[in-house]
Amino acid sequence: MTKADIIQFPKQESASQRVHDSYINFAAQVGIGTDNMSSYGTYGFTFLTRNRILLEALYRGSWIIGAAVDHCADDMTQAGIEIQSDMSPDDIAILEEAMDDLEIWENINRVIKWGRLYGSCVGVYMIDGQDMATPLNIETVKKGQFRGILPMDRWQLVPSLGHLVQDFGPDIGLPEFYQTVPDAILPDLGVIHHSRLFRFDSIELPHWQKLTEQLWAESIVERIYDRIEAFDSTTQGAAQLVFKAYLRTLSVEGLREIIGAGGPAMSSLTKNIALIRRFQSIEGITLIDTTDKLETQAYNFAGLDDILLKFAEQISGAIEEPMVRLFGQTPGGLNATGETDLRNYYDSIKRKQSTKLRRPLKIILGLTMRSTFGKELPPGFNFQFNPLWQSTDEQKSEMASKDTSAVQGAFESGLVSHATALKELKQSSKTNGMWSNITDEDIKDAESEPPLSEFVQTPEEIAAQQQVNNGEENKED
Q1: How many other β-carbons are positioned within 10 Å of the β-carbon of residue 418?
Q2: Helix (H) and strand (E) counts for the chain?
Q3: What is the rounded average pLDDT of the residues 230-258?
Q4: Is 107:145 a contact under the CB 8 Å cutoff?
Q5: Alpha helix ranges (H) inside 380-439
């Protein structure tokens, strides 16, 4: 049996078998494809990501674009990580201090920001004394060699489109090398191997569009540009209406003849209008001729706030950031606090941290460890991103009470030892704020204590002891 016998190719449909998955009524001109306005609408390419000058003007001139670029980067880096390892607390503190000295989080923040603005940005691992064009081998990094991260956006690098990664893995199909573009600030780093940097791509493009962008990604500004333009235009239009909110109209008999004649007649009209303005501003008195007519028109601003709110909601949805965070605006409505929106937003930030930052952070922590201690990360080393949502004091107190009761019950029932109970209480201090003063010495001393079961009698032992006591009392009687 051949492959042709196994593979069944689908039968070709004839023209009469075509079906439509949308409602169409040609007589009523309803539906896509009929002769109506909707049928002539389409979408085109703007390629705004390629317009670096416009992107930078938007970032500097539009506070919404600035917030859309900055907020996500700030939220992804502000809380840091919690290191989970058998390392001593002192060594963990030294490792975290080394990361602070190298400004690791600040530069990761910049990589995310410029990646969101330009579409893509990389963070170069700065290692002294090594050839940047060679693959990175962490085991060759000595103490003091790792100098931090250098952010470089897509306009500072030229990818090697003729040399792509062919090895199976997450980097397959990406440029193998990047040629730096030196300027007045940055030195000429030459060719950089892809393993010596990590990429942050804002919006990943499909295959063929990625080729048109030299394998870079899309800026977040490109998707929301039309919504930003509509919002700013509406806001500016509303501001212009303020100057026309109260208009006064003076009807003058024979105005055209007076303007055409000019001279004394025009001068008299001008003086008349000046007197009207003067007395209206001082005493509220209007002097006009009996044949003249003065009217006022006031503009009604009702509905403008709803229009602006709808545009703001569209921007918030496009950026994937709740209005309470983007605009600093408390949502309206009964019992509306925005807490649910913020929790959902923080969950999306956590997801982005896991998908975009976990892999490069493992390398950064390994480089920092070797550069600080001269050795690799210990087995079982792990870390978690600290949560952005902070509990209130009342919530922490309630959690502490529940955690303490649960640990105490497990200890008194003999399920856990004294040392394990202390470890659980100390672990819970990271969320509830209590029991943080339990030291490693306290836990070590508790490990040498005998189990509680030697001091606590079981119900059977208590019943037997009561029978013995009752028997002795009967003998005395």
Answers
A1: 18
A2: 17, 10
A3: 82
A4: no
A5: 393-412, 418-432
